Recover the amino acids of this structure.
């Protein structure tokens, strides 16, 4: 079945460590996104990418990095520079960046700093 | 700049009762509007979207929403809810980014709790 796969579902990070969240899609979508979700705040855009080898910062990119070496993959690295990384992270994709296109979401990854 | 306000953070309702989840948006340009549902510990699933045309939009699971341009609203309704509708609901509007890209601006969410 086509969809977006995020892994791991749960991840614990020690202070000062970098961690990478995986996102893979087999929908043949050009556009991919990373959102962060905190309770009571809705979703906020971290990074987005429209094509391979190109990505743009969203509203809260500080402390995060991404790569887009393959169309189907858009991993997110949470660096030690991110001061408050504990959150639910959602990867998403759409056929392209057009305004009316539906954005599809993965199941999400919980990151907790211990 | 576009923004979205969901007027209720929580809505409790009894099973088989009607429900309305309210959403207002602000935008100086034409808008595309969306409602998503999120079940516990899962990603978001599209319920419905308004792009143009008829202001009454029907979605999945018996939900519908009405686009009201004069009141800048896009309220979500269901005539009879089920226990399984218990979830968080997000209203969103498209915002243009540089380079011809677009992104969704989300409201803070409304938690619908359906009680037996």
């Amino acid at each position: 079945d086509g969809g977006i796969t995020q892994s791991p579902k749960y991840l614990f990070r020690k202070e000062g460590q970098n961690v990478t969240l995986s996102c893979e899609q087999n929908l043949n979508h050009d556009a991919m996104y990373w959102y962060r979700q905190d309770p009571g705040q809705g979703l906020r855009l971290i990074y987005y990418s429209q094509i391979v080898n190109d990505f743009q910062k969203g509203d809260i990119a500080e402390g995060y990095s991404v790569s887009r070496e393959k169309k189907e993959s858009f991993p997110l690295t949470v660096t030690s520079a991110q001061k408050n990384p504990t959150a639910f992270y959602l990867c998403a994709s759409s056929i392209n960046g057009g305004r009316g296109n539906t954005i599809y979401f993965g199941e999400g990854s919980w990151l907790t700093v211990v | 700049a576009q923004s979205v306000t969901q007027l209720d953070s929580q809505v409790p309702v009894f099973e088989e009762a009607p429900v309305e989840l309210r959403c207002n948006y602000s935008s100086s340009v034409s808008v595309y509007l969306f409602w998503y549902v999120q079940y516990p510990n899962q990603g978001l699933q599209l319920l419905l979207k308004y792009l143009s045309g008829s202001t009454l939009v029907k979605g999945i699971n018996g939900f519908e929403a009405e686009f009201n341009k004069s009141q800048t609203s896009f309220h979500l309704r269901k005539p009879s809810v089920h226990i399984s509708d218990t979830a968080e609901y997000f209203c969103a509007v498209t915002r243009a980014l540089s380079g011809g890209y677009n992104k969704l601006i989300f409201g803070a969410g409304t938690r619908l709790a359906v009680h037996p």
Notes: The radius of gyration of chain B is 14 Å.
